[in-house]
Write a structure and sequence with these properties.
Layout lengths: L2 H12 L25 E8 L2 E8 L5 E7 L6 E2 L11 E6 L5 E7 L2 E7 L7 E7 L8 E8 L5 E7 L3 E7 L5 E8 L4 E9 L2 E8 L9 E5 L8 E5 L6 H4 L1 E9 L4 E9 L9 E10 L4 E4 L6 E3 L4 E3 L4 E5 L4 E3 L3 E3 L2 E3 L6 E22 L5 E7 L5 E2 H4 L8 E22 L5 E9 L2
Antiparallel strand pairs: 1-2, 2-3, 3-4, 5-6, 6-7, 7-8, 9-10, 10-11, 11-12, 13-14, 14-15, 15-16, 17-18, 18-19, 19-20, 21-22, 23-31, 24-27, 25-26, 26-31, 27-30, 27-31, 28-29, 28-30
């Protein structure tokens, strides 16, 4: 065999996909088929030991796409597309009777789909409807199942109200049980803790993120809403995301509530990612706050949050620094187009691996950081993780060779006004 052939095989083996080990808010998230997960404005439902994720496929005319998982990390595409429907926004599952249903927005009306199986063969069920009782058109869809197994459809009407309607057992949209009319909100999600209903909503700012808010009530049917309350520091704009659903995971030791948000690109397109974060919920004090982690996962058996613990750190001050950048008090400062930082002999496990880039950018308009692994192409960090420049720890998934043989170069586009400070990198090994 030709040497080049062998090297080619090795190069392919180099980047064989290992299973996903982490939920990484803002990062591109790959399915078990190696495709980017494409299910935005979605929802996750658990049945048995399996989680089912439905969302709109930005690269397939907003058809409802589905994925299944048993660990919330590794998602296998279901047979897609699910049906003939296109341009259905924010599809959500429900099971008001023996059939499986998807409800979403089509032409600012509610369209229902129905199937006898959860992941396949959905067909249009009935015609599009405006919202009873007022016949409002609407934008976003949410879904909630109460303890008594009654399903509720949440909608944000174009009339600036968030409306909650019961789903009847024939799948029809039933009575309006509550409405939030306290401003311009959309993207509603509802969850219940110790008898308190927490409603999470976004402001209306198109594809740009805003500080999402929480309202609460102790009575779903007719109760009045208290709020708004912040769920994260306002300046973080919900960590660059917009709410879509709140998932409750009940484990043997703990119940964890997960905020599921979309990290939209500039037009809600295929570059959009996801921001999932555990929430701290204080049902007595009526507080909900997102617990920010650059990288985390949930032990779905115990319900506990797990963070990476095995990391190898490389300091920028000990790397090879070339060009105008120089070692400052807290790392390498002044990174711009004319300079680069090269980390040599970085140990890899062989395959795709998370590398946390520890850096800050004072002015994101003035400069952008990229990485080059083993003389490969330059890749902008923002194309791997939407948190690039917005947070001091940005995990990116890179293909590393096995052993202390990798070279990771960190460079930038832009000038010194960007105020880029690189502290170092941490290669995650668990
Ligand atoms: C659920 O309701 C729909 C609409 O009335 C009906 O077509 C379907 O057969 C029902 N499913 C079951 C399993 O009862
Ligand atoms: C990376 O970002 C810079 C702007 O900061 C842009 O000029 C360049 O085209 C981007 N590179 C890629 C590969 O997208
Ligand atoms: C770094 O790795 C190269 C092989 O890529 C090797 O030749 C060199 O000895 C290593 N240096 C150290 C300090 O381990």
């Amino acid at each position: 065999m030709l040497l080049s052939g062998i090297l080619g095989l090795l190069a392919t083996a180099d980047v064989v996909r290992a299973a996903n080990s982490w939920i990484v808010p803002g990062a591109a998230w790959q399915s078990t088929s190696g495709t980017k997960i494409d299910a935005h404005g979605g929802m996750v439902m658990k049945r048995g030991d399996t989680f089912y994720w439905v969302g709109q496929s930005a690269s397939h005319n907003e058809q409802p796409y589905m994925y299944t998982s048993t660990d919330l990390l590794n998602w296998t595409p279901a047979k897609n597309p699910q049906n003939a429907i296109q341009y259905m926004w924010r599809p959500k599952f429900a099971k008001p009777n023996g059939s499986f249903w998807i409800y979403g927005q089509v032409d600012r009306n509610v369209q229902a789909l129905k199937s006898s199986t959860l992941t396949d063969n959905y067909a249009v069920a009935g015609s599009k409807v405006t919202l009873p009782p007022s016949g409002y058109t609407y934008s976003d869809t949410g879904m909630f199942m109460d303890d008594d197994q009654t399903w509720y459809l949440l909608t944000s009407a174009d009339h600036n109200n968030v409306q909650i309607n019961r789903l009847n057992s024939d799948g029809a949209i039933g009575d309006r049980v509550n409405v939030l009319a306290k401003g311009a909100y959309e993207a509603p999600g509802l969850f219940k803790v110790d008898g308190i209903y927490f409603l999470v909503v976004s402001g209306k700012t198109g594809w740009r993120s805003n500080p999402n808010q929480m309202f609460w009530t102790d009575k779903l049917a007719g109760g009045s809403w208290n709020g708004p309350y912040s769920i994260a520091p306002d300046a973080e704009k919900t960590y660059n995301s917009q709410n879509t659903f709140e998932l409750t995971v009940t484990g043997s030791k703990k119940t964890t509530y997960v905020y599921m948000g979309d990290s939209w690109d500039s037009k809600g397109g295929p570059d959009s990612n996801y921001v999932w974060l555990p929430m701290t919920v204080d049902s007595k004090g009526k507080k909900v706050s997102l617990e920010y982690h650059a990288q985390w996962k949930l032990d779905v058996a115990t319900g506990e949050v797990v963070l990476p613990s095995v990391k190898r750190r490389y300091e920028a001050s000990e790397a090879v620094v070339q060009g105008g950048a120089r070692v400052g008090r807290r790392g390498v400062i002044g990174l711009s187009s004319d300079s680069k930082i090269t980390f040599r002999n970085v140990t890899g496990l062989g395959g795709r691996q998370w590398v946390q880039l520890h850096y800050r950018v004072a002015d994101r308009e003035a400069g952008e950081v990229h990485v080059i692994v083993n003389d490969g192409p330059a890749v902008n960090v923002s194309s791997l993780n939407h948190r690039a420049g917005y947070h001091d720890v940005v995990p990116v998934e890179l293909g590393l060779r096995e052993g202390a043989v990798n070279t990771i170069m960190v460079g930038a586009t832009g000038n010194e006004d960007a105020g880029i400070v690189v502290e170092g990198i941490e290669v995650v090994e668990d």
